[in-house]
Amino acid sequence: MASTVRRVAYYTSWSIYQTNYQLKDIPFENITDIVYSFANLVDGVITVGDPWADTQFDYGPQNVFNGTAGAFGYLNSPTGDARTRNPNIKSHISVGGWTWSKEFSSMASTQQGRSSFTDSVVNFVEQYGFDGVDIDWEYPGK
């Protein structure tokens, strides 16, 4: 059985505030997947982490997905820069991370919490056009 090699890159929401490496600098032609971090977890549901960077920054009209601009639009618009450079790129949203993991344990402790979270993830992915989700839970049990 042949293995499929995945070349995955991560890009953080706060990178927009630094001038040395922007979304346009990512070598989309050379990767198979991009993981954008981070979405937040509020009251047990996934939410936009940095509204300006994630959904509002203007990368141009071609980089809008489902009415959403920002990094989400840049990564997921079928006619946008990322998908033009690599039509087969898969985008994923990472939720949690060092700053936004504090609610994972309480959310995961009940069936209702887990169900609400998974429902919110499905809605989030559909709304913003992501292909998958990365859960960056730092650290289970805390």
Number of strands: 5
- Look at the helices and sheets and give the structural class: alpha/beta
The general outline is globular
Give the percentage of residues in beta strands. Answer: 15-25%
Q: What is the share of helical residues? A: 25-40%
Q: Nearest-angstrom radius of gyration?
A: 15 Å
CATH architecture: Alpha-Beta Barrel
Largest sheet: 5 strands, mixed
Low-confidence runs of at least 5 consecutive residues = none
Compressed to H and E, one letter per element, the order equals EEEHHHEHHE
CATH topology term: TIM Barrel
State the oligomer: single chain
Pfam family, one: Glyco_hydro_18
Protein name: Chitinase 1
Keywords: Carbohydrate metabolism, Chitin degradation, Glycosidase, Hydrolase, Polysaccharide degradation
Family: Belongs to the glycosyl hydrolase 18 family.
Notable features of this structure?
alpha/beta, TIM Barrel, 5 helices, 5 strands, 29% helix, globular, Glyco_hydro_18_chit_AS, GH, endochitinase activity, Glyco_hydro18_cat
Detailed description of the structure:
The chain has 142 residues and is an alpha/beta fold. The protein has one domain (11-136): Glycosidases (TIM Barrel, Alpha-Beta Barrel), CATH 3.20.20. 29% of the residues lie in helices and 21% in strands. The protein contains five helices and five strands. Strands 1, 2, 3, 4 and 5 form a five-stranded mixed beta sheet that branches. The model has no long low-confidence stretch (mean pLDDT 94). It catalyses: Random endo-hydrolysis of N-acetyl-beta-D-glucosaminide (1->4)-beta-linkages in chitin and chitodextrins. Residues 5-142 form the GH18 domain. One of its GO terms (biological process) is polysaccharide catabolic process. Belongs to the glycosyl hydrolase 18 family.
